[in-house]
Specification:
The complex is a heterodimer.
Chain A lengths: L1 H73 L3 H23 L4 H29 L3 H9 L2 H145 L1 H51 L4 E4 L1 H11 L1 H6 L3 E4 L5 E4 H17 L8 E8 L3 E8 L30 H11 L3 E6 L5 E8 L11
Parallel strand pairs in A: 2-4
Antiparallel strand pairs in A: 1-3, 4-5, 5-7, 6-7
Helix pairs in contact in A: 1-2, 1-3, 1-5, 2-3, 3-4, 3-5, 5-6, 7-9, 9-10
Chain B lengths: L10 E5 L3 H13 L6 E4 L2 H9 L13 E5 L8 H10 L8 E5 L4 H10 L3 E4 L4 H17 L7
Parallel strand pairs in B: 1-2, 1-3, 3-4, 4-5
Helix pairs in contact in B: 1-5
Classes of the chains: A alpha+beta, B alpha/beta.
Chain lengths: 505, 150
């Protein structure tokens, strides 16, 4: 799935780039072709206007000739008006035509001939008119009859018609070219449009496919998330239930263990009482026996008394061991019971001034601290929303431990500091005591486990209790310590109480 | 311990499943100088049969001065059930009931008093304290006035 997605991901920009390039190409081609078409149109227009001008020229010449002939025929000056108008018109047309044909040698030659013929024709006509005006009618007529004017005219006509025909051919060629250009333009536009549509369609398909894939992936993710949440919920419920079960179990076990223990203790006491009675009785009997048998008594009484004393000592030893063991067991069971009871206690969250709380704890141990020459330093501590009793127990235990496990000969120093983030508060309890070896960092938090020299009284429940409480408050406790280097206990707690704070732990 | 109304000595009905406890309780009560007869039952069914009789009406014990020493943790039923039945029986309801048990759960204690228990004592775990408590209870028994059942 990953690979195909990558292919599609590469194909799409490629398609887009291709489409863009195509668009540019079409635009360029179109612009070029349009330019060409307009050029063609201009050329055609020019050709047509040249044809027109040539026709006009021929017409002017004919008008000039007919007006010349009219004048020669009637000697009426009015006929000459048109002739006089025609001459500059014809000259001007020739000039214009020559202007337009600049750069085209073949055309210029033709036009030069036209120009010559026009000039020659006007010269001939002017001559006849001048002869006639001078009164020499016959000579003028002879000039006309000479046919040279007519031939001139015929040649002019032939040349101009040739030129017009030539222009026509050029125009045909140009219009053919123009049509071709237009056709090409059409084809390019159509093909381009078709390709664009095709690319657009392909892009659309791709986009749609990608969208569908993304949608499917999103759906899958949402499903997984929901699933995960459900799993977490189940697990949490399971853990909470298991935890409650363990606490119930601990409570029941510790509770039910006490009953037989009371019996053991009770009957041990009964035995002890019985022992006194028995031994007293045996002593009386021995004394009575000695009274009865004086002879035997001389030899036996001392050894009997010794034996009796020995029995008594053995009995007492046995009873003593039983009693101390019972007392130990009783303490352990009480510890478990206390822990399980703590686990069942409902927390009452409130905002707690930790400075005041630690101050009170410091005062509580003040007497002992003074005796040990201990220094307790309290830095400003952030407040926290949590359970007061639990925090009191936690910090009392830690402070107590710090004083209890000092290094011999070194006055204990104790340093409590804290910091806060938006969500958490962290407190550090630092001492200069005997420290805890790295191997025991986890063990000290376990129930009934202690570390280092066992020269202080205790059951090994303090830190277990502390950790259980911290966990129930939704926090963590960590230890950093080295032997003979002091210890730092770091407690992190959520700054604000929430329903979820009470973790399953 | 005497009954105010009848000249018969008060009989102590002890319902305690742990025989050792029962024996220790008896011994320590005797040490306090209480010589009243003690009927001991190790389970609820036998105790119920004794208290309520074969017909289950409690009529058998009518007019008899009784005092019940009750443990809550019994193998076949809870002491609370027995307490409830005794205190709702017209013949037995005036019998003083002393609950003597290991449970010190506040809710449990409340419930017992609500049901009409007269004294609730938590068995001390430590034997010395246990023996002490029982002896004091014995002294208490020696001065208490017990009405006859009706």
């Amino acid at each position: 799935m990953n690979r195909s997605r990558r292919t599609f991901g590469g194909l799409q920009p490629l398609l887009l780039g291709f489409g863009f390039a195509l668009l540019v190409a079409i635009s360029v081609a179109t612009v070029m072709l349009v330019q060409r078409a307009s050029n063609d149109a201009q050329l055609i227009a020019q050709t047509l206007s040249e044809q027109n001008m040539l026709s006009d020229l021929l017409l002017s010449m004919r008008r000039a000739e007919s007006s010349q002939r009219g004048y020669l025929f009637t000697q009426n000056d009015a006929y000459l008006d048109e002739f006089r108008e025609s001459e500059p018109v014809a000259k001007k047309l020739v000039d214009q035509l020559q202007d337009l044909a600049k750069g085209n040698a073949a055309r210029l030659t033709v036009l030069d001939r036209v120009s010559d013929l026009v000039d020659t024709k006007f010269a001939e006509m002017n001559k006849t008119i001048a002869l006639d005006k001078a009164g020499d009618h016959d000579k003028a007529r002879a000039e006309v009859l000479d046919n040279s004017g007519r031939i001139l005219m015929a040649r002019l006509r032939a040349v101009i018609e040739d030129a017009i025909a030539g222009e026509g051919k050029v125009a045909d060629e140009r219009s053919a070219l123009s049509r071709q250009t237009n056709t090409m333009l059409l084809i390019v536009t159509l093909v381009g449009a078709g390709l664009i549509v095709l690319i657009g369609f392909a892009s659309l398909v791709l986009v749609q496919r990608n969208y569908r894939r993304a949608e499917a992936a999103r759906q899958e993710l949402a499903d997984t998330n929901a699933n995960l949440e459900r799993i977490v919920e189940y697990r949490t419920a399971d853990l909470t239930e298991a935890n409650e079960e363990i606490q119930r179990f601990a409570y029941i076990v510790s509770h039910d263990l006490r009953s037989p223990l009371v019996n053991v203790m009770g009957f041990t006491s009964e035995l002890e009482a019985l022992r006194k009675d028995i031994f007293a009785h045996v002593e009386t009997l021995t004394a009575r026996l000695a009274d009865l048998d004086r002879a035997a008594a001389e030899t036996e009484t001392t050894s009997e008394t010794d034996k009796l004393r020995q029995y008594g000592a053995d009995f007492d030893e046995a009873i003593r061991f039983i009693k101390t063991s019972i007392a130990n067991m009783d303490r352990l069971i009480n510890a478990v019971l206390k822990l399980s009871r703590e686990g069942r206690r409902q927390f009452r969250p409130e905002v707690i001034d930790m400075n005041a709380l630690l101050d009170t704890i410091g005062q509580n141990v003040g007497h002992r601290a003074a005796e040990m020459d201990a220094t307790i330093t309290l830095h400003p501590l952030p407040e926290v929303e949590s359970d007061r009793l639990a925090l009191e127990q936690i910090f009392s235990n830690l402070v107590d431990n710090a004083l209890k496990y000092s290094r011999p000969g070194v006055p204990p120093t104790l340093d409590v500091s804290g910091s806060a983030t938006a969500t958490d508060v962290t407190y550090q309890v630092k001492d200069n005591g005997r420290g805890i070896g790295a191997d025991d960092h986890q063990r000290v938090f376990e129930l009934f486990r202690r570390s280092g020299r066992q020269d202080q009284p205790g059951e090994g429940i303090g830190l277990a209790h502390v950790r259980a409480l911290v966990r129930r408050l939704g926090g963590t406790i960590t230890l950093s310590s080295e032997l003979e280097q002091g210890s730092i206990f770091t407690i992190r707690l959520p700054r604000w109480w929430s329903a979820g704070t009470r973790s399953a732990a | 311990m005497n009954s105010q109304f009848a000249e018969r000595p008060v009989e102590i009905v002890m319902i305690e499943d742990d025989e050792g406890h029962a024996r220790l309780i008896e011994k320590n009560i005797r040490r306090a100088g209480v010589n009243n007869p003690i009927m001991s039952f190790a389970n609820g069914t036998e105790a119920i049969n004794y208290l309520f009789g074969a017909d289950g009406s409690g009529f058998v014990n009518k007019g008899k001065p009784l005092l019940i020493l009750l443990d809550l943790n019994l193998p076949d039923m809870t002491g609370i059930e027995i307490l409830g039945r005794v205190k709702t029986n017209e013949h037995l309801k005036r019998i003083p009931v002393v609950v003597l048990t290991t449970t010190d759960d506040a809710v449990e204690i409340q419930r017992c008093y609500d049901l009409g228990c007269n004294v609730y004592i938590t068995k001390p775990v430590n034997y010395e304290n246990f023996a002490n408590a029982i002896r004091q209870l014995g002294l208490f028994f020696s001065v208490i006035q017990v009405p006859a059942t009706e």
